[in-house]
Q: What sequence folds into this?
């Protein structure tokens, strides 16, 4: 995935805002970016369904600070009501300097 900007609208812009919210460790801002019935699937945990559950999940995930995300969209469907996206996400602590590397100490 190339660099994602946070200005504008559409899936690329939304991805950029999600990445920024997670890096900042801002659970409120991150949850607000999901639709009311949105789903977040954290690694090794049950799915969080709905904004309140996503906010709680983010608060647990951000317990030690923000997270760096790498988002790889696999399917994006855009319609009149908005967009839905499925993909792969890599999550690592924001302060981990080698998160893009294939091997980290």
A:
């Amino acid at each position: 995935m190339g660099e994602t900007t946070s200005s504008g609208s559409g899936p690329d812009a939304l991805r950029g805002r999600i990445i920024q919210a997670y890096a900042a460790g801002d659970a409120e801002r991150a949850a607000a970016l999901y639709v009311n019935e949105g789903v977040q699937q954290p690694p090794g945990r049950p799915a969080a369904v709905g904004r309140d559950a996503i906010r709680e999940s983010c608060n647990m995930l951000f317990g030690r600070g923000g997270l760096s995300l790498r988002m790889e969209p696999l399917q994006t469907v855009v319609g009149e009501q908005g967009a839905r996206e499925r993909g792969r996400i890599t999550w690592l602590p924001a302060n981990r300097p080698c998160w893009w590397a294939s091997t980290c100490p």
Observations:
- The longest strand covers residues 67-79.
- The chain has one domain: 11-93.
